[in-house]
Amino acid sequence: MTIPAARPARSLMAGEPFIETQRLTLRELDTNDASFILKLLNEPSFLLFIGDKGVRTLVDAQAYLVGGPMASYEQHGFGLYLVSLHECGTPVGTCGLLKREAMDAPDIGFAFLPEYWSYGYAFESAKEIISRARSLLGLERLIAITAPDNHASIKLLTRLGFVFDKTLAHFGDAGESNLYALDL
Predict the structure, then answer these.
(1) Which CATH architecture has domain 20-183?
(2) What does the pLDDT average to over 147-163?
């Protein structure tokens, strides 16, 4: 019998099954979200601005969830969360924190299906994630990484209070990227 790894003492969810904002519900992703993740990760905008995760089937999506967000919850107490609409439960995107080994602070990340852009959902969910990063995790700094030509994400990060820090010549397979920072 395998004993599950203990959760970190501090968690962005603080033992809650979900986070609610005015219009949205955020919860931990699980393998039941594979069809949504398959769709999101293969959107042309995701492939262009975030990158190709190599997720082509439901099995790939389940493996991505287990090895990515779900592993991050256990290891760090945070990860990417499913963002859905309160009134109908429709999943619209993901938002949360990532811990990258090469970076000195957690990275806020978000991705939404194009049909849900321009409704303020990314801002609303990211604002809640930032608030919890400060109050529950005691973080003092967050970073964000985006493609230099991803003007919508840059505008959102600026609205959230992030400031340009530097250009990263090669970030993973993305090539040149901009690093933004927010002191909490």
Answers:
(1) 3-Layer(aba) Sandwich (3.40)
(2) 96
